[in-house]
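ARCHIVE CARD
Drawer: 12
Card no.: 0347
Subject: one protein chain, sequence and derived structure
Cross-reference: see card 0346
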Amino acid sequence: MENIYDVVIIGAGPAGLSAGLYSARGKMSTLILEKSKTGGQIATTEEVANYPGSIEHASGPSLVARMVDQCKEFGATIEKDTIKEVKLDEKIKVLVGEKNTYKARSVIVAPGASPRLLDVPGEKEMTGKGVSYCATCDADFFTDFEVFVIGGGDSAVEEAIFLTRFARKVTIVHRRDELKAAKSIQEKAFKNSKIDFMWNTTIQEIKGEGLVEGVVFKNLQTGETQEYMANEEDGTFGIFVFVGYIPQTQIFKGILDMDEAGYFITDDNMKTNIPGVFAAGDCRVKSLRQVVTAVSDGAIASVQAEKYIENNFHE
């Protein structure tokens, strides 16, 4: 007999794992598919201090490991495969992967979104060691240190303002000679005595052994480069990169409704424009992308998938 799952979940980040936990615990046959490693962005986070209950200095990997164990304990299956094609219009959904083809009564899409990288030498090596893409996650680690914020849009400037609560000095580094952020946000930044600006400037290289120790800036007008090193007392400083996110939604274009940036448009119940297909986590339009909101999305999507199955698949 052909295996048709009640729920197939695409993505094993916090949203997908939360959905998997709720689905499996609800006695639905549940498959979670992940193309790379489980955990999504949180798997690269050294400490998760702002997730409720994380009082034992839980790291991203340790929190993910617990989530995975919970899913498996209740009967969810986790497999590694990359979905290349989806057929969602029929009552039974078909997902075509590199390894296998999967069929499901409902689908929860939770592929996440990845920060847009600077793509400079040292960036990947120093990620989590001074280079961050989330001020809410990591600002506390830079209390009384200096930090640089890369970017000039709403997110970059808002996060720079937030960082002034912790860092002693925040420098916004922008490749243009004026910010792209909304005027009201700009005004707050210009009035903040802790914020400085480096205009027409990009990062060329990030240096350090174990922690960020130096950075090479390039002035786009003069072509000159300048190396900045951490002062001896601090030994390090922070680099927060806010040059956009890339939602991992490409294979759903023209199938599921998205905004201009490629994020899924859902209602409060995680429903997409196709019945039986739900979206959860950083891949959807939302105001806050954090672990706590991702797991909430996953739980809601799972409960709604269960209701959908009850209403549409009568024995």
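Annotation on reverse: The chain is about 25% helix and 25% strand. The helical segments are 14-25, 60-73, 123-126, 135-138, 154-163, 183-191, 291-312.
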